[in-house]
Write a structure and sequence with these properties.
alpha/beta; Rossmann fold; 2 domains; five-stranded parallel β-sheet
């Protein structure tokens, strides 16, 4: 606990960037940081070395967190289809992010979404939905769900917290039990919303398909 109290907010931002780059290595940690902060290379190298000295970043690979470094940040996972982004989504994502340092959003593949709800109409293909969610500032990383079960994706992310939307059908107990089976100590929280009427199915019903042809 003494070590964690020595971390300032920027230390956690750097650890978060390294963690996210480990999941999506196409963007190195420095480039990811520079997309938000005008960070000089000299300052970045100095801060990274400080994190190495604290045992939070690997000595031989400064793009990887140690076990201690991973434990210094909280990763929150949220999943959904996100076919139509609305205020309810934004409130939910902000509420989820408030539980941790890193928000990873899993965008459901079209095949998975249709399998779960057979009468669902999806207007945007999965690549566009992923791009839309990735553009939101509150989201640290958006990825497409893995083919298979939800827990294949959870095992890849290894989140500290799984945040469920107020109207998602998943059972907290069932998810927690499946995580334990995979030796993941993941906490499951159910989020509430101040905008219960802001729901994709309601919006689509009221606007009709003609909205998507504008």
């Amino acid at each position: 606990m003494t070590l964690l109290r020595t971390l300032d907010p920027f230390d956690k931002i750097m650890l978060s960037s390294i963690y996210v780059s480990g999941l999506y290595p196409n963007i190195p940690p420095l480039d990811r940081l520079r997309s938000h902060f005008p960070l000089p290379l000299e300052l970045y190298n100095r801060k990274i070395q400080e994190l190495v000295n604290l045992g939070l970043v690997e000595v031989g690979n400064k793009s990887r967190l140690t076990f201690l470094g991973r434990g210094a940040i909280k990763v929150v996972l949220v999943g959904g289809v996100f076919d139509l982004i609305h205020p309810g989504h934004i409130r939910t994502l902000k509420a989820a992010k408030s539980h941790g340092d890193v928000l990873v959003v899993v965008v459901a593949r079209t095949s998975t979404a249709v399998m779960i709800k057979k009468d669902r109409t999806i207007y945007h293909e999965e690549g566009l939905r992923l791009e839309l969610v990735s553009s939101l500032n509150v989201v640290d990383l958006a990825i497409l769900g893995r083919e298979g079960t939800l827990f294949d994706t959870v095992e890849y992310i290894k989140p500290d917290i799984i945040a469920l939307g107020y109207d998602q059908f998943h059972s907290e107990k069932e998810i927690a039990a499946n995580c334990l089976e995979r030796k993941l100590t993941t906490r499951v929280v159910r989020l509430t919303t101040p905008l219960p009427a802001s729901k994709s199915s309601i919006i689509k019903e009221q606007l009709g398909e003609s909205f998507y042809r504008l």
